[in-house]
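User: These chains co-purify. Model them together.
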Amino acid sequence: MLEAVLLFREALYGSLIIAVTCAVLGVYVVLRRIVFVGAALAQVSSAGIALAFWLAGHGIATALASHPEALSLAATLGSVMFFARPLRGPVPPDARIGVWYAVAAAAGILLIAKAAVGEAHDIFLEGNILGITNSDTLELLVVCTPVLVALFAFQKELLFTSFDRDTARTLGYHVDLWDLGFYLVLGVVISISMQFAGVLLVFNFLVLPAVTGLLLAGGMASTFVFSLGSALLAAMVGFALSIRFDLPTGPSMIAVSGALVILAWLVRRVQKRA
Amino acid sequence: MTALVSFRDATLGYGRHAVLRGFNLDILDGDFLGIVGPNGSGKTTILKTFLGSLRPMGGTVTVAPGLRFGYVPQRDVVDTLFPLHVLEVVLMGRYDRIGLGRRPSATDRELARKALERVGISHLADRPLNALSGGQRQRTLIARALVGEPNVLVLDEPTNGMDLVATTQILGLVRDLHERTGLTVVMVSHALNEVANYVERIALVHEGGYVVGFVEEVMTQQALSAMYGIPVEVSSFEGHRIVLAKRQQTGEHRHA
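Assistant: Joint model of the two components:
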């Protein structure tokens, strides 16, 4: 088994980078109650990848076959501009997100069905986490390290503008700009992670570790610690289980994340009764 | 007294929808002003305009240079899902003074504890926000507004959804803060009976019209009846004013 782990060590490193970055971002995603924005962005990102393969398969932009992330990033950042804008009108915000999600998911499936480029289906549905190479790990590091540094440095500002927008505004914070910045970072991380991890695993790391953190923690700092810890644990244990039992890697990590949420929920119940 | 905020012939509203036209009001240094009116009358629009969240659609709104507002939002807009402790919430009132990307210092923490002392809940500093009662949460938000050393304390519906005891305690606390330090206070509320017994001046807003004056001037049968368009009675009980809408006999009632 050790040989297999060593063989796929880049996949493990890549998974850990994605897990850590999404787990930190996910705390804000869950607390801001924008979980469905995360899901919709992941779908848009995958639709971007599907479009890249479809275009390349039809000889329109063949270079996109090796760099589908370019179109994925463009589509995601375009959607970010939509989600970050305060919207008014007769349609509630969650319904708009629902429309975005459904259209992006359908477009992705239709495009991938007609894409002539190999391996597209796997990438679209599950990602290709075992296919992560050394250069992919470096690419993930280059994107995710500044994101983590920024999230740590501006923790106070992000927390305030997420927790109480009106009061932050009266103290001179440009809340809409902070929102835009947060959504842009979220979009970049989702679109970069998507091409390796797939829709489901990225969404998992954005939501489940944060939920585990909120169930176990008594404060903001400990929420981040538990979220990070559970994401790392899910990535490592899921990875090991997938190799040991020849299971798909992404779903194995998600299963472990789910088990950790259930465990956290049980711990909380016991603590409440005590 | 100098005016800290001045509305001059201002048209206030959202988008293209004007809520108030030709609005004139001065918020004076040392004022204790209640902006009172039913839901949708425009009182929150007035508040958002002088806080800078909304631009006036017409006329002018002048805010004295360097003026600092301590804003206390409605209690229910504060999200208790966030696992924050009372002291952390109060510290937010100093975030703009601490500076971008920097962490609160020991002095900031000390000031936050003092602000909690001023509102009488220093013993709750390490409690989770979501474990507090409505009144305690309101005091936390007032402490957060005070810790930023504001010139004007602005409270949006501070007693909304509170029981009689908590309402009396919160309004008493606000009046006490005003009387002890001369702090300018602006309080927005739909509850005329509550506010009228605590503030010194009232801006009464109703269906596009408004009246501003000292409580004794505004809280009269004539002024209130004219404002609301129904017969209103103003009674007094042990120094407290009570406003009652006179029971109207409709044709349907008479036949019943």
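The domain at 2-273 of chain A is CATH 1.10.3470.10 (ABC transporter involved in vitamin B12 uptake, BtuC).
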